[in-house]
Write a structure and sequence with these properties.
The chain has about 525 residues and is α/β, with parallel strands linked by helices. The chain has 17 helices and 17 strands. The chain folds into three domains: about 280 residues, Aldolase class I (TIM Barrel), CATH 3.20.20.70; about 55 residues; about 120 residues, 2-Layer Sandwich (Double Stranded RNA Binding Domain), CATH 3.30.160. The protein is globular and about 75 Å long. Bound molecules: 3-methyl-2-oxobutanoic acid and zinc ion.
Length: about 525
């Protein structure tokens, strides 16, 4: 029988380390539930010691999913491990992921520790963690720049102390497939007890080698692959798990491995993560890019018409891309909408259906044709219930100034806490600039806009616009998103969404309304 490769998804931890990405608890749970549908075996839900909010989110994820194991990251110290114990130890099917750096660069320049001290701390922490969890993953950070003998020594000692999974990450995306194979082979041959634990790979994509290196690790006998859907993560990102999964499936003849991944869930998972994180998928991205199955040259089109296998090694349907349909009309009822969601693989509760149906009706009044993408966007951009949604954008009137170039915006924002309407006025070199300045003035808030993107959700000139923004306050970044047929309204609402996220993290900061 083909050997099973386990998939460990760290979108909610390493993925959240993508600059500007910050997920609230509700978003983490939504992503985790989707990862469960995808068939992920282990979900790294966060870093419990980072803040009480992170710990709560880790716990919420663990309670929300049933099949995948949920782990939290911890540095090799007692306080971090205690934070994970408090968040997870009484929840079924959970574990811990402890790490310490092992390479000479990290030992000498970052940790200021000797080899002996690193081993001692690793062993002490793994033994402590093993008292609380039967699943203890241990990572040698920067393993690929660590001396092989030392890597084997640390591995042997932490296995003895109770580690059940050994992860040897390519933290800085530096290794090559041959080198990575050599490393795993050496450690598995030289560390006593290696045959009793699961080995894991964790590759970053700094040199574009993450998929090649992960697959090399699998060829060296590693049975767990760590990464993020869409390849998000620190710097150039982590390995894109959907690429590894599609590769193992498409070339099963060669690799002879089994996975628990339900490939048909890939497209949906990828789109949801892109929408929630605000990180767009490049059109030429393998497996999930918009052009991944497009054939544009005449020769290719001719081949595909004659037989798809001429230029398609996998079908779009096999990774969950459905032919987009024109759905439902203005007169369609709630049941028809529910049925279409179910056909698309979304289960929707009565309360949520009620809210989405209201939005659907509003949309149907403004847009002639409604496509699958439109109703998916309506569902996936429901306002957050866990956020402190202090403000709602109400409306704006715009004036072109006498120089015929600049705009003046008069904005109204509702304060949901006391029902008052706040007015603001701003001038800028375009309508969005003027509105954002009006919002800043009305809320007396000082934030910097550092990113703004807009894209259409489906086809047609009357398509819904989806806006993502990132704002900065001090050193912190906050993202916001909104959709609307009226892109000016979507722009204002996305900005307010980001401000609400900023406000919700500033419980002690008084926002002065004028
Ligand atoms: O890249 C890395 O080394 C990590 C560890 C914390 C596992 O993310
Ligand atoms: Zn990493």
């Amino acid at each position: 029988m083909a050997e099973r490769v386990y998939f460990f998804d760290t979108t909610l931890r390493d993925g959240e380390q993508t600059p500007g990405v910050s997920l609230n608890q509700e978003e983490k749970v939504e992503i985790a539930l989707r990862l469960e549908q995808l068939g992920i075996d282990v979900i790294e839900a966060g870093f419990a010691a980072a803040s009480p909010g992170d710990a709560e989110a880790v716990r919420a994820v663990a309670k929300a999913v049933t099949k995948p194991m949920v782990v939290s990251l911890a540095r090799a110290n007692k306080a971090d491990i205690d934070a994970v114990v408090a968040a997870l130890s009484d929840v079924d099917n959970t574990g811990i992921h402890v790490f310490i750096a092992t390479s000479p660069i990290h030992r000498e320049k970052k940790l200021l520790m000797t080899k002996e001290q690193v081993v001692e701390q690793a062993v002490e922490c793994v033994s402590y963690a093993a008292k609380h969890f039967s699943h203890v993953e241990f990572s040698c950070e920067d393993a690929t720049r660590t001396e092989l003998e030392f890597l084997a020594e640390v591995t042997e000692k932490v296995i003895e102390a109770g580690a059940t999974v050994i992860n040897l990450p390519d933290t800085v995306g530096y290794t090559t497939p041959e080198e990575y194979i050599k490393m795993f082979t050496y450690v598995r041959e030289h560390a006593k007890g290696a045959e009793n634990v699961r080995f894991s790979c964790h590759c970053h994509d700094d040199l574009g080698m993450a998929v090649s290196n992960s697959i090399a690790a699998v060829q060296a006998g590693v049975t767990q692959v760590e990464g993020c859907v869409n390849g998000i993560g620190e710097r150039a990102g982590n390995v894109a798990l959907e690429e590894v999964a599609a590769l193992l499936e498409t070339r099963k003849d060669y690799y002879q491995k089994e996975t628990g991944i339900n490939l048909k869930e890939i497209a949906k998972t990828s789109k949801l993560i892109s929408r929630i994180t605000g990180i767009s998928i490049p059109p030429n991205k393998a497996v999930v890019g918009h052009n991944a199955f497009a054939h544009s040259s005449g020769i290719h089109q001719d081949g595909v018409i004659k037989d798809k296998s001429t230029y398609e090694i996998m079908t779009p349907e096999s990774v969950g891309f459905l032919e987009t349909k024109l759905v439902l009309g203005k007169l369609s009822g709630r049941n028809a909408l529910k049925q279409r969601y179910e056909e698309l693989g979304y289960s929707i509760g009565a309360e949520e259906l009620k809210e989405v149906f209201k939005k659907y009706k509003e949309l149907a009044d403004r847009k002639k044709e409604i496509f699958d993408e439109d109703i998916i966007a309506l569902l996936e951009t429901q306002p957050s219930k866990s956020n402190v949604n202090v403000y709602t954008f109400k409306d704006v009137s715009l004036q072109v100034l006498p120089n015929n170039k600049d705009y003046r915006a008069f904005v109204n924002i509702e304060n949901n806490q006391d029902g008052t309407v706040i007015e603001g006025v701003g001038e800028g070199n375009g309508p969005v600039d003027a509105i954002y300045k009006g919002i800043d003035q009305g809320l007396n808030i000082d934030v910097e806009l550092i990113d703004y993107t807009i894209k259409s959700i489906s086809k047609g000139k009357d398509s819904i616009g989806e806006v993502h923004v990132k704002i900065k306050h001090g050193e912190s970044l906050y993202q916001g998103r909104a959709i609307n047929v009226d892109i000016i309204f979507a722009s204002a609402s996305a900005y307010i969404d980001a401000i609400n996220r900023f406000v919700s993290t500033q419980q002690n900061v008084e926002i002065v309304n004028k």
